[in-house]
Each structure stands twice: as C-alpha cells, then as structure tokens.
Amino acid sequence: MREIAKLAGVSTATVSRVMNNPDTVSPERREKVEAVMTAFSYQPHQRKRPKPTNLFGVIVPDITNPFFSQFLDVLEKEAYLHGRSILFFNSRHDRHQERIYLEECARHNVDGVFLLPLTCETGFLEHLQALPYPVVMLTRTSSLITSFAVDHEKGGRLAAEHLIKKGHRRFGYVGVRAGLEAKLNGFSDYLTERHFILPDECCFDIKADGDLNAFVVRCYQEKKPPTAFFCMNDVTAEKLLITLQKHGIEEVDVVGFDDSMTARLMAFSSVAQPIREMAYRGFEEMLVLVKNKGEKSETYTSLLFPPKLVVR
C-alpha cells in the first residue's frame, strides 16, 4: 500500500479509503490511485471482518487532569453496563504517541475508539476515517467525524461577561492559543464588543512562552496590571492562583474552564462542561456505529453542548 501511495503521490490513508470507502475520495485522487493499482495489477488482501471483541479503546491527552478522568469514569461505567470493557491510553499531549495508540487499538481489534484528541486538522481526521474501526471524538467537533463537545466560544463569552459585571476593566489570559482558539476568541470578542481590550502582553501561552512565574512578575510591574484572568482550564487556573499567591498578589479574579474538583476545592469560578451528557451521547452513538460497522456513512453526527458558568 505504501508503494501505491508513493507512486500516486497521495497518503496511505487515501489509498486505504480508495479501497474501502471510495466515495469519500475526490474523483481526481481516486483515478490516480486506481490507475497505479491497475498498472501494477495490485490486488488488496481481502481480510475477513473481525468478530466483535466487546472492547472499546479510550485515548485521553492527560489522565492527571480531573476533567479527562471524569470522561473515562463515565465511559467505563457505560461499557460495564453494556457488557463491554475499556482499553485505556494516555497520550500525554503527544501527537505521535496518540497515533501509536490508535494503531495499538487496531492490533487489539477493538470495536471502536473514544478519542479526546490533540488536534482537529483535516489530515488527521482523514486518518481517523481510514481506521478499521469507528471513532467517536469527544471535546472537539468536526463535520468529518462523529463528535461531541461543548461550545467553547460561548464558554469564553460567559467568562468575559461575568468578569465585566464584577467591575473588572483590565484582563489577562493564560492557556494555549493554538488549538483552543474558540475559547480565547469568545473571551476576546466579548470584551471588544463591550469596548475593552485584551492586551497581548497580558496573554500567556503555557506551551510557547515558558515561565509563568516570570510572566506574573512582568505583568505586575506594570502601572495597571490585570485584575482578572481567564484560563483555558482549571489546572491552568490553579497554577496561576498559586503563582499569584506566591508573590502576595491578591484581589485578582480567575475564571477557569471545566468546573472540575480543582475549581470546587480552590473556590474559583469556572465554565462547566456537561461531561456526563457528552459521554452518554457519545457512547450511544458508538453503539450505533458498531452495529452498522462496514456501512458507509454519508454524514457524521456533530453536536455542540451549551456550557454553564459556575460562580464562586
């Protein structure tokens, strides 16, 4: 298959889809692949459809984050109630590791995989489509794959609205920018609509900018530092609060995202995601996909759930 892909100038995933789901490939690419296959008299191996294993894979980016642990808990309980078992993987925010685990699931002949992904890039989603089992994506949505998530943009807007109502006029953001644009955009757009700004110097990217401690010191050396922050999740909010306390900085409002046990214990406001509802709906959809395995789907279910701000 790799040689066919190389000669046709396409990916192996595209070759796989030409053989298994040709209608999902553009006519131009399909013709290229089929021409190479014909020229070399390529005959794909006809593999028997594996018997159901009653095993589902679950891949999360960080099991130490209580938010992802809650997803795993709900999925495991649902699997047990349906006479199934869970094969669990922790990608540790590593895209390469995530792909390895997807292949590992294929080797274990899982009936399907619940994926809490690190990216929604088109190439990656096409790779998911070509896998030998159905995938249900949770926490992010796309029209290219069955997926369920919360409306992150709405969540960002709720955080901004809350902080403005509390009287704040100077704002900051701590989190990842790439891949989580919806949260940040919702927050920033709402501020702009109310004639406030989110200065670049008050935004910290935890992956790209390095030292959170140095960022806090730099911010509070300014004459008018932020009085409120929005964080991409509760784990990040906890780190920010600890850093602020370390420098004796008080009376700063922090809003997190996920409303996990961390937010409840540290008593800061957070945007809640309906984890159980998303997981239940995802599990129901997976059962349908497994039942209809082998049948081509013209469309994929993609649904956004409304968030809710929990004020503390």
TrEMBL record:
Q: Which PROSITE patterns match?
A: HTH_LACI_1, HTH_LACI_2
A Pfam family in this protein?
LacI
> What UniProt keywords apply to this chain's record, in alphabetical order?
DNA-binding, Transcription, Transcription regulation
Using the record's annotation, list all stretches that form the HTH lacI-type domain: 1-53
Q: Which Gene3D superfamilies match?
A: 3.40.50.2300, lambda repressor-like DNA-binding domains (1.10.260.40)
| InterPro entries given in the database record | HTH_LacI, LacI/GalR-like_sensor, Lambda_DNA-bd_dom_sf, Peripla_BP_I
- GO MF, one example: transcription cis-regulatory region binding
Keyword Ligase in the entry? The reply is no
Q: Which PANTHER family match?
A: HTH-TYPE TRANSCRIPTIONAL REGULATOR GALS, LACI-RELATED TRANSCRIPTIONAL REPRESSOR
Q: Name the chain's protein.
A: HTH lacI-type domain-containing protein
Q: Which organism is it from?
A: Enterovibrio norvegicus FF-454
